[in-house]
UniProtKB/TrEMBL annotation:
GO terms for biological process: late endosome to vacuole transport via multivesicular body sorting pathway. This is Vacuolar protein sorting 55. The lineage of its organism: Eukaryota, Fungi, Dikarya, Ascomycota, Pezizomycotina. It is found in: Membrane. The chain crosses the membrane at residues 7-25, 70-91, 97-121. It is a multi-pass membrane protein. PANTHER family: LEPTIN RECEPTOR-RELATED, RH04491P. InterPro entries: Vps55/LEPROT. It holds the Pfam family Vps55.
Amino acid sequence: MAGLKTIIALSFVLAIGFLLVILSSALWHNYLPLLVVATYVIAPLPNWICSRAQSSDDFMDGGSNAVVELGRFITGFLVVMGVALPVVLAHTGQINIAAAAMSIAGGLLIYSTIISFSLSFREDEEF
């Protein structure tokens, strides 16, 4: 079970991630890199919604569920989009390359913190 130190450490990493994304926008006076925050905040939602929508059967638990796989696909798409969007914006000249690098680093810190929170505070299923 996660303790107070885990919460503090993950919150610190999350704050650094948001700081990097905000600085990537504010230092170069271009707020397009803030779109990365939207993709990383929305990314876990399809996985969460589709895992709630799956049908759980105690007797037939061996097969895969198409709804869960769809949620994982959409989540993966959003995570890749969060990394690819700053690269595309830097390639087209909309943002600076340094802003793109800061935005990618901050976005990966944000999403890794979201994953760590969900893994640390997962409830164990008991029968």
